[in-house]
């Protein structure tokens, strides 16, 4: 279905194999999902994105579950089917309850509605909202 | 700048005035921002969106600040200038620190990058990610 | 503000001038708006788009006002500030009332909300909706 | 395929069942489509969206078929596969002819093209197009 | 899967058949892909889009392969599954190597990331970037 | 206008100052544009994005000018005003002629049109276009 083949573990160049090892160690799961198997044709890009993602999505001022829900919101707005599926699964694995998911969906829906209205009417930004 | 005039308090129909009163009472601020002034040409739509937004953005399984950050993420993806400004201001008023905003931006950037790559390569969804 | 200069009538190549003449004759207004002045750097592209637009937006199975409202809807979804402004002005010039605009906005908002929800949940298409 | 299971009639909470009853009564069809079955995990959200949609999409200053075509236009721009299918089916059920659909597609295509060009060149809005 | 049936060669109106003949002659392949078979319900639109596309995508100041890669970039950003597949196949047929595709993907990812950040922060355009 | 203040050189933390020095050395221009001044509130993110961008946009299997044009295409599709301006300026500085820009715009417009049509009709992908 994709525009590139999905590489199996046996197909990987050594640099890509090292990234897969780190994905498995970091996530403590055996399954390496299709996004990385598609990206593995370019080991340098694979490593760059995985390393940055690992840092960005880890704990910090925001907890990892909040970050996964933000990821879902962006993915819905960008109409990314793969990303909606994979990050909803990740969010659930990190503890997103049915109630949390329902509220996440409600916010995504509300934001999309008012985004479209503000873009249709081209509402000018209030002075009070601009950074000084 | 907008496609409709922004109604002042003196221009409001009674149903719209009641919504403005509720906005002021709920948010405990005098300033009613431009989005509502543009929407007020249609008091029924103004009331429907405000009432739904008030419910959706209030506390629940997710706290109001988390909801504002999700709103910012959707607004960035939808390229809504007004919404990015207004919800960043709201998130700050609800306690978003510089560190939280920096991490929010990092997640938005990372999600947008991998969304585009998954959409370019049309990666098929892993069976493990589908709801049963 | 734009990435190209806006050509005045005196700057136009002959092929571009002919298109401007046709815009004025077709619309029966003297004002040629900025989109065409930006596009006029490439007279062939200017002519191709104007001629196609003139045909597409004219009367047919759908009336010209319905077409303008569809144009506004696409422009809001694509976050095109210029297009939202210019086609709202065109729709008003063709008879869009305040009530019609309010309902148009309500449909745009509703569609954007359910689009985002369907994209977030990746709802599978019902068999009944597929063309045979 | 979706991120949530699709609820059958037997799975519904009472509040969701009441919404399904109203969908069937309003549309006078037995089939309740997948979007509502996915949304039914959150009966409050299901009820809120259905009730608003029922009002927005009904007759008013714009006829229901025009509203369905506007919905299709937004859905194409937002790349919502589910919505494109379901609202094209609805529009056909409400009388959209092949000629009307062809013209709708032509307007969607034309708007998307000029949206992209205006966004690429960042054409400034003509003074004449701004609301006073 | 689509909202319209895909016309076989036997279903074509004469004007559509002439376009299919030209597609085969221009591309020197027997296979006419599904996009044109869906569009063929409206022969006038089919002819208008094919003729414009043939001109736009041919050699000029940019070579045809560069144009295909630009097409892929737009398609990823618009989340168009069909277009990502068809234009990746076209680009490969015109000589896109694995290394070129990998770099194309990297640029698409980088642009999407910084687009989202600039849209989230609403960075004002530097004076130096505006056309004079 | 932005949601964050734009840092002047005097406001920079040491890690951000080092990035600015590298931007000036790499581009051989004194002007550091606003995007980096907004991002500089988070020096770690500033460094991560600049270093990745420097690598991605440099020469490789694709030349730097081709990459800038791909960046413009993504930016138009994502409706990023800042990015359209900044990368059009970059492309011109790297040698994009008026003819090249005109053809770039034509491809962006054509791709956006057919993307929208494919998304509206939900055309299924031809088997011939799928990776084996």
Structural write-up:
Chains A, B, C, D, E, F: This is Carboxymuconolactone decarboxylase family protein. Chains A, B, C, D, E, F: GO terms for molecular function: peroxiredoxin activity. The structure is a homohexamer of 132-residue chains. The first copy, chain A, has 132 residues and is an all-alpha fold. Chain A folds into 2 domains: 7-57, AhpD-like (Up-down Bundle); 60-121, AhpD-like (Up-down Bundle). Chain A has 6 helices and no strands. In chain A, helix 1 packs parallel to helix 3, helix 4 runs antiparallel to helix 5 and helix 4 packs across helix 6 (98-121). The longest helix of chain A has 24 residues, at 98-121.
Short description:
The first copy, chain A, has 6 helices and no strands. The first copy, chain A, has helices at 14-27, 34-39, 43-57, 64-77, 81-93, 98-121. In chain A, helix 4 runs antiparallel to helix 5 (81-93) and helix 4 crosses helix 6 (98-121).
Q: In DSSP terms, counting alpha (H) and pi (I) runs of 4 or more, how many helices of chain A?
A: 6
| Approximate shape of chain A | elongated
CATH topology tier name of the largest domain in chain A: AhpD-like
Protein chain pair with the most extensive contact, residues per chain = A-B, 70 and 70 residues
Instruction: State mean pLDDT of chain A (0 to 100 scale).
Output: 96
Distance between the termini of chain A: 49 Å
Provide the β-strand percentage band of chain A.
under 5%
Supply the number of structural domains of chain A. Answer: 2
Structural class determined from secondary elements of chain A? mainly alpha
What string gives the helices and strands of chain A in order? Answer: HHHHHH
Tell me the total number of β-strands of chain A.
0
CATH superfamily of the largest domain in chain A: AhpD-like
Query: What summary fits the major beta sheet of chain A?
Result: none
Assembly of the depicted chains: homohexamer
Q: What is the CA-atom radius of gyration of chain A, in angstroms?
A: 18 Å
CATH architecture classification of the largest domain in chain A: Up-down Bundle
Report the top-level CATH class of the largest domain in chain A.
Answer: Mainly Alpha
- Return residue spans of chain A where pLDDT drops below 50 for at least 5 consecutive residues: none
| Helix percent band of chain A | 55-70%
């Amino acid at each position: 279905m994709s525009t590139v083949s999905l590489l199996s573990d046996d197909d990987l160049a050594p640099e890509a194999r090292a990234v897969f090892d780190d994905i498995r160690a970091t996530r403590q799961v055996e399954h390496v999902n299709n996004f990385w198997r598609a990206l593995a044709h370019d080991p340098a890009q694979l490593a760059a994105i995985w390393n940055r993602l690992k840092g960005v999505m880890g704990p910090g001022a925001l907890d990892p579950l909040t970050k996964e829900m933000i990821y879902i919101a962006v993915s819905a707005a960008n109409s990314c089917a793969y990303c909606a599926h994979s990050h909803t699964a990740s969010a659930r694995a990190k503890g997103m309850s049915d109630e949390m998911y329902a509220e996440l969906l409600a916010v995504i829906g509300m934001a999309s509605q008012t985004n479209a209205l503000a873009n249709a009417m081209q509402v000018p930004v209030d002075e009070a909202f601009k950074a000084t």
